[in-house]
Amino acid sequence: MPRPAPGRAHRARRRLVGLALVLLVPLASCQSADEPASAPERLSRNDAQATLTSHPAPTRTGIHRVHGRLPVARRKAVRRQVGAVVDRWWEASYLGGTYPRSRFPAAFPGFTAAAEQRARADKALLTNQTGGPRIESVTPRKRRITLDILATGGRARAVTAHFVLAFDTTGPKTGTTTVRGRLFLTHKRGAWRIFGYDVAKGAR
Prior knowledge:
The chain is an alpha+beta fold. 25% of the residues lie in helices and 40% in strands. The chain is built from five helices and seven strands.
């Protein structure tokens, strides 16, 4: 996994594994010989970007690899849906709300119950809780998501979302923070849910 740029301020990393290993093994072994291996998909203007109204900088979401057979229409749906899940987490944990702030009571939309319980213990890493009281504004610089999809029977079953989020802060805590890593998602009760993460955070 790529590491964040070295910085003077907080730098941390935490992993949640468990079921993530179940996802990673099939991803390495179930690729169809009939599917393109590694060429990223060309993104259309409408499908490639998910824009939050409070932050007009777009999130660019692409598909790196599909393991198994998945029709183009379903690939596009997965890209939109998973991109929206990641965006909601970013908005709740880093980009949204009124600063200065120290409370992030609903920071993990789209997480399973077990993943949310673990993530609450990692709020210093997975939210702006530590620096929030010294932040006056947050402006995103980079929002990028790349997906590896596991499909069986013509349907997406699991996704690994590789992401990079970079944002600038003003106030007593001025600088650039980069959060990067992987989110592990499964389709559960009609929606994509994050059940694991491997995340690093650095500031300069």
